[in-house]
Structure formats: structure tokens, C-alpha cells
Amino acid sequence: MKRLLLILFAIAVITPSTNSLSAQDSGDFRFGFRTGYYFRAKAYAVGVYGNYGLTDWLNIEPGINFMCKKKSTVDVYCDLQIPLEIATYWYVYPIVGISANDISAKNGSIDGWAAGLNLGLGTSYEINGHWNLSAQAKWMGRIPRKHRSAIIIAAGIGYNF
């Protein structure tokens, strides 16, 4: 997985673009839906996210994922991204963030949850002025140690406001 992320990042950096390297505009907001697969948990997830351009070179993306398995859990995350335009309307961004994982309700209280560090790489393509497609590969390191780290591959669609 680490090799795949390294290869994708190298391709993104080396790929020639038709314009100079730039980022999305600050103040841009998008809302979207994403679905993905948690490899170590062997489960699909669906979720929603909001993405806001803090500056021209830094986005913040809070979101929530709902696991689709028998003992359902919820993951809440907040990632920082540095979106780089490598071709017209195509962005690649590294991901660094934090998360609260494996939140589930048992007898009305939260039990067994874990904290995590997110590291990954994502890409998005602006279809038109309002819609975009995105894909991410992310590693979620978890604490305490009894929780296994997750590897997530996700794809989604978002609406730009």
C-alpha cells in the first residue's frame, strides 16, 4: 500500500500540466457523498463530507462514515489537504488528519472507540462549475493498540457552492 501511494504521488508530481501548478481558491465550499472499502475491517462504508478552502493552498475536510456491516460503527474524521492542480480541472492532494474510529452504541453509551491519525493521497476532477468526482487512498493509524489500523479506498461525488 505504501508503494502504491508513493507511485501515485510520483505520477502526480511528474505529470506535465498545461498550466502552472496551483491550488483551489480559498473560500470555496463543497458538500459530497463518498463510498469506500475498509480493507482490514472487510467492510463497505458510506459517508458525507464537507470541504472548505481555508487558504489558496489548504483545505479542511470534516466527514463521517457509516460502516455497512452487522455490528455497525461510525468513523468521524477531519483532514487537511493541500490541493495541487496538475492539469486543467484535475487536483491531487496529500491528506493528513485525525479521526475517532469504531464509535458504536452499546447500552446508550459510547464504548470501544479509538483515536486515529490519517495519512493518504487523494484526487479530484472538476466535471463542471458545480460538480466534481474524487477518489482517495488513506491509512488510518489507530490507538489503542487493540484496534487494527485501517486502509481505506474511497470514491465520491461533490457539489461546489
Distance N to C terminus: 34 Å
Total helical segments: 1
Low confidence ranges: 15-23
Q: Give the H and E element order.
A: HEEEEEEEEEE
CATH class category name: Mainly Beta
In order across it, which strands form the biggest sheet?
1-2-3-4-6-8-9-10
The largest sheet is: 8 strands, antiparallel, barrel
- By oligomeric state, this entry counts as single chain
What is the mean pLDDT?
82
Under CATH, the topology can be stated as Porin
Radius of gyration from the CA trace? 16 Å
Helix content: under 10%
User: What structural category do the secondary elements indicate?
Assistant: mainly beta
CATH architecture: Beta Barrel
Count of distinct strands: 10
Globular, elongated, flat, extended or rod-shaped: what is the shape?
A: elongated
- Relative strand content: over 45%
**What's the number of structural domains?**
1
Write a concise keyword list for the protein shown above.
eight-stranded antiparallel barrel; 161 residues; elongated; Porin; 1 helix
